[in-house]
Amino acid sequence: MPDTSFLDWPFLEPRHRRLAEEAEAWAAAHVPALADHHDVDGTCRRLAAGMGEAGFLAHAAPPDGRFDLRALCLLREIFARHHGLADFAFAMQGLGTGALTLFGSPTLKERVLPGVRAGRSLAAFALTEPEAGSDVAQLALTARPDGDGTVRLDGEKTWISNGGIADHYVVFARTGEAPGARGLSAYYVPADAPGLTVAERLDTIAPHPLARLRFENCRVPGENRIGEAGAGFKVAMAVLDVFRASVGAAALGFARRALDASLERARSRHLFGAPLAAMQLTQTSLAEMATAIDTAALHVYRAAWTRDAGAPRITREAAMAKMVATEAAQEVIDRAVQLHGGEGVRSGSIPETLYREIRALRIYEGATEVQKLVIARQIIA
Ligand code: COS
Questions:
Q1: Membrane spanning segments where (predicted)?
Q2: Residue whose C-alpha is closest to residue 44's, from 247, 213, 209
Q3: Which residue from 61, 70, 319, 321 puts its CA 20 to 30 A from 218's CA?
């Protein structure tokens, strides 16, 4: 059993503890039956539908438009501990509609969010391009007025999670009100919009639905814009402020699973006539893992609590939470692999699976290097 003492920390309230219990019970009962690594797309669809039915997706796309970031983080942590795709399916419903939740028109929200909450329609966040990943202000995909109130999108997006299976995308485009970051806008684009195609599905070391998208003369109604014209950069950053802390939470879930597996291993495996756990070398490793996990959890729930308590922006706290938790998880999982010896690199073993799962979290939604830039700018300012 994972350490759940953090649930008593003052960052959390009784409703969070109840939610954690429910999510734990649901994940233990349902995730193994819904997950199938040979069918990643189907797994994500089934998991989203199951989470929708159980009511958890209301925390990813809240009906009142107010994120309970502590709940979001708790759910990501718990789902990640059970299965990487369970976290992924949950998180994408939120990331893919975060812009709508925060800045969408009432009509658009009413049209899109109930299906997302029910897990019937799948969402995606389309920001990254082949030539613009970390440097969002350089986005090249264009959105131009095209008469009759429609807007025409042309360009490419890549590394889009849920790409290929999503029912709709929030697409960030250059609308040109001003140069750089001040000339972008966000649009809601249904997956069946004419001119939008999946150019390529992308495979990675921890497979999940991922694609490169092509927009050629792709038309959507002008009222599909989310937020003000020219405010797309700030819309993207506001969404990332929420979800970066939650990426830290997912990393925390992976790390807790690695520590659990390591404790089990340390108790059951004998070396030189004693359990591994009796060796001081092992104890050092376990102590460092547990400390890294608590440090990560403190950052994650500090960021979440700060936002829930009403801070208008948590850019610094979210960047720290993402950076600290993902880097800590990588280290914890690497130690778990080492403690497991050959078993740690056997395909399909828990440490091996976690080792593949964690790597991308240090890259997406702002690589560790970008988080350092963000933190430095905040403290210098
Ligand atoms: N919330 C609201 N507004 C924000 C903001 C935030 N978190 N961060 C920046 N802004 C505002 C700034 O205040 C500035 O506003 P004004 O034009 O009114 O002054 C504007 O947005 C531009 O900000 P800045 O000058 O900092 O833009 P940069 O191009 O220098 O931003 C970074 C650089 C690295 C911070 C940004 O591009 C970034 O976060 N990149 C990583 C993106 C990412 O996560 N990619 C992965 C894809 S998602 S899987």
A1: none
A2: 209
A3: 61
**Beta carbon of 95 within 6 Å of any ligand 1 atom:** no
Nearest CA-CA partner of 122 in 63, 67, 165: 165
At 51-75, the pLDDT tens digits run 999 999 999 999 999 999 999 999 9
The closest residue, in CA terms, to atom 48 on ligand 1 is: 365
If you write DSSP's letter for every residue of 246-282 in order, what string do you get? Answer: HHHHHHHHHHHHHHHHHHHHHHH-EETTEEGGGSHHH
Is the same domain home to 112 and 132? no
Q: What is the CATH number of the domain that holds 20?
A: 1.10.540.10
User: Which residue among the candidates 331, 343, 365, 369 is catalytic per the annotation?
Assistant: 365
Whether the CB-CB separation of 190 and 136 falls below 8 Å is answered with no
Whether 172 lines ligand 1, by a CB cut-off of 6 Å, is no
Amino acid 147: pLDDT: 84
Statement: the pTM of the whole predicted model exceeds 0.85:
yes
CA gap 225, 188 in Å, rounded: 6
Is the C-beta atom of 243 inside 6 A of ligand 1? Answer: no
Q: What is the pLDDT of residue 318?
A: 97
Domain count along the chain: 3
Whose CA is closest to 124, among 204, 183, 189, 184? 189
Per-residue pLDDT at 208 exceeds 80: yes
Q: Are residues 288 and 258 in the same domain?
A: yes
Q: Which atom of ligand 1 is nearest to the CA of 233?
A: 21
Cα dist. 116→54, 72, 74 in Å? 13, 15, 20
Judge whether 305 and 245 are in contact, CB under 8 Å. no
